[in-house]
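Protocol step 6 of 9: fold each sequence in the batch and record its structure tokens directly after the sequence line. For illustration, a two-sequence batch is reproduced in full.

Sequence one:
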Amino acid sequence: MKTRLERNREKESLKQAFIYLFWIFVLLFLLLKFGLPTLIKIAGWLGERQSQTTPVESASPLPIPEPELNYFPSATNSSEIALSGFSQPGTKVKLYLRGVSLEETTAEKDGRFEFSRVHLADGPNEVYIQSSDNLGGISPESKTLTINLDTVAPELTVDRPQSGERFFDKDSPVTVAGKTEAGANLTLNGRFVLVKDDGTFSLNYNLNTGDNQLELVAKDSAGNETKQSLTVNYTP
């Protein structure tokens, strides 16, 4: 005697067999009525409908290399500068200045990009960039670089000699001494003068007979400069 489970299995098998037979008759009917080419077209249309309703997985964002800023001086006396660099071609490059998103541009086919007019504030300005693409990929932040806006000319005082001072016989060479901004580049009539850590300087200078014009020029790292000129007379 069959169990209830066996009877249910037989019913399910018969049901599946009837379904298969039904679809076989349907296919034979369509084949006889419309022919094989039309049947193939119908099958293709059903396949396209199925593909349209199947969700397409979006491409995963690929990692974007860290963009790079080209070298720029650590100090400037210009409140407006140009910044350039390299990023993955076609990516959007965003510029951050003092922690604030300033502007955005697109890297060219060779990866080059430029921000032509970047406005700086007095003092240190921290700059970095970051790239992104249309798939949602974001690069690591670039290295943060700092550029200092300095529009103040360096101090420059000459303690000796005094302008109009006269020298005789063995007074030449004369000592030219004074003080300027520490780290400044100093020249005397185009000749390099060593500036000490405290800003003081001292140099022996050979005088020519008659009037001698002494021109000192101090220039800081931002390009600001200060000039001092004086004239002394020498009689051998």
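Sequence two, same batch, same settings:
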Amino acid sequence: MTRPATILIVDDEAGMRLTMQRILEGEGHCVLVAADGLAALEIAGTSPFDVGLIDYRMVGADGGQVCADLRRLQPEATLYLVTAHVSPEAADAALAGGASGILYKPVDVVEMLGLVNEQAAKRPVATVAHGGE
């Protein structure tokens, strides 16, 4: 097993949040969840996290803007947009705004875990939080 990390999942689809949460917790990671951009910013204001998995299309929020806002709050976190489809222009804007990459839905679990575990291995142990919802 790799070093545990704290992961923030932001997605307005409850099933997607729960699925990713169960997979990541099953690997020993701490998972924080938010159903929208506002909740994600509230969490980021009080709880450090290592990796953010942010849905691109959410009701009332643009995942690219959420990434940019999270980047300002937690510049050390690694952020990935999660999307079924995104235009090249939107992808470029999200990457310019602070996203490190894009995961396409349906999410490849092996790819997701590889990215999370890679980032977790780079983090000092002191940044790892425990608990979550």
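Proceed to step 7 once all outputs are recorded. Observation for sequence two: The chain has a mean pLDDT of 87.
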